[in-house]
Amino acid sequence: MTTLNRRKALALMGASVAASGLAAPALAMNNKIKVGALRFTSHAGNFVAFERGYFADAGLDVEFEFFQAAQPMAVAIASGDVDYAVTAVSGGLISLADKGAIKVIGGALSEEEGIDGQKFLASDAAFQAGVKTPKDLDGKKFAVTQAGSSFHYMGSKMAQAEGIEMSFTPLQKVGAIIGAMKSGQVDGWSIVPHIAKPLAGSGAVHIIGNVSDYLPDYQVTTVFTSAKHAADERGMTESFLEGFSRGVDDYAAAMIDNTADQDAMVDLIHKYVYTDRPRDKAAPSIINGTMRLNKGAALNIASIQDQLNWFQSEGLVDADITIEKLVDTSYVDIIGA
Hints:
- This protein has helices at 6-20, 44-51, 54-57, 70-79, 91-98, 124-128, 150-162, 174-183, 193-202, 227-232, 234-255, 262-270, 279-288, 301-313, 323-326, and strands spanning 31-37, 60-66, 84-88, 102-107, 109-110, 119-123, 141-144, 167-170, 188-191, 205-210, 221-226, 292-293, 299-300, 334-335.
- By secondary structure, it is of the alpha/beta class.
- Strands 2-1-3-11-4 form a five-stranded mixed beta sheet, sandwiched between helices.
- Belongs to the bacterial solute-binding protein SsuA/TauA family.
């Protein structure tokens, strides 16, 4: 008896697929998957793909699981509780990749010149005490979710560039950081604009700089999956990336390129982001969160390498981890090489 793995089966079925007019990812029809997400505008590619049927067109039955930080999402991918996710590179993600548990397969949110991006913030208490620029955070407390998070990376790279020292305060969740900033328990933070701008508008914090000034072309978030899915479920993984990329295209057309209906896109995103606010109150924050999502989930490999180098230099991950351990470059275009 001959046993066929998925790849061989796809090869044998290629002729019939071509005859039927279906793309190869349609072979994944009716695959039920869980997608990890945060309730951020920057995760809109997934929300659009779900709401407009692009995942369904690609043969995927998607259920979202929502998280409040990056590292728990990486653990969920490694354990098999979630199939695909978009999140920032963290020390936890890199360590799980080193153990052969996960792979980065694409890029999502990125800093791009000409598009408003992430901000450095000062609490009102710190601002009133003289913290007017990122350099003024010397000797101050800088909030992060966890040690080895993207917040830690951004703060540390800024501190290195400015020649200052800060103490990093882990508070686990974005909500806890916002509370600590408002109460003056921490002095500084960096966050996406749809959170930064409303907080600054309320007077609770002050915008004192741009992350892009220190990290141009920063690949803020990545698309990732389990190493098993990347290796053994290529059809399903390509289907996910196909649906996600179509969602990203619609998002960019409406929110960045102004070639599609922005109001309709805001309505869609509001189903997932700022759901506790009326639409008219949520819309400005959703619009403020508009940043570039990479077309076709292209990945800036130079930025990922810089992040890996930083985590290693800080002793947060093993020094011998290679980019090949972290990234499967076979799925999407690689830029910045």
